[in-house]
What does this fold into?
Amino acid sequence: MTVNGVNYEYEIKFSPSYSILNIYLKKDQTILAEAGSMIYHDVSIGIKTRKANKSFWKSIVRTLAGENFWINEFTAESGDGIIGLAPPYPGDIMQIKVEPGKSWLVYSGAFLACSPSVDTSTKFSGFKKGMFGGEKMFYLQITSPKEADLFVSALGGFFIRDLKDGEKLRIDNSHMVAIEGEIKWDIKRVGGIKATLFSKEGLVIELEGPGKVIFQTRSPSEIISWIYRYLPKSEG
It folds into this structure.
């Protein structure tokens, strides 16, 4: 089943475990996609690789948010065509409608593709949020001068909470995918010193609405730790 987005007709297949995003491009239509995310495309579609931002420095800073320096631009040059995209990890994909005057904060590794009008600026979260939040100190701030499509991916499935004005929610940082720009957030300590040092749950992000929160059901760092336990260890 295909869905008409803001700019694109698209289809998400094999959801939620091994999702693929199929974009049905009309002639002369373009989509921007994270480098390395393309699975296949029709021969009617051409590809150009460029810096993720016009500024060389901004493209460098983008890598600090866990994204690539380069971005691929796919255009249906000789006729309509289909392009298939997917993240490097197993999980789901979803579309976010980006409205003019609104912004989204997208966390490390979640960006997959977007309309050409979307600006993916890199923002510094601050030393406190970056050092004690357990993840990157930078994130992508997504804006667009007109309605646009943004596609994000999750490790595992998506969980969405729509926080009311003043409503608060605490979440582990490694589960974050995206939040609406109006949401306030900070790093909080929960429990005592023992919980902070040994439970892995002592420091969390506290979010305050209004706005939507999108997070993933699996933590990349915890999966890496789980796999590491079963890897053969050299003696000595």
